Amino acid sequence: MCGEPGDSGGSWYSGPDHAAQAQGVTSGGIVGCPGDGPMYFQPLTPILDQWNLDLTTG
């Protein structure tokens, strides 16, 4: 993972663009490229549950 300042709050997903699966929200880590350090994210399900939201994709 290659993170830069300002990435917090951005989407975290897995898989190819045409079949990406939402995983969570970026919350920090070691910035810089190449991505030698860890990056952290908050899982999506607890966030959706807290606000009683559903994720809809098209």
UniProtKB/TrEMBL annotation:
Residues 1-23 are annotated as: Disordered. SUPFAM superfamilies: Trypsin-like serine proteases (SSF50494). It comes from the Bacteria. This is Uncharacterized protein. It comes from Lipingzhangella rawalii.
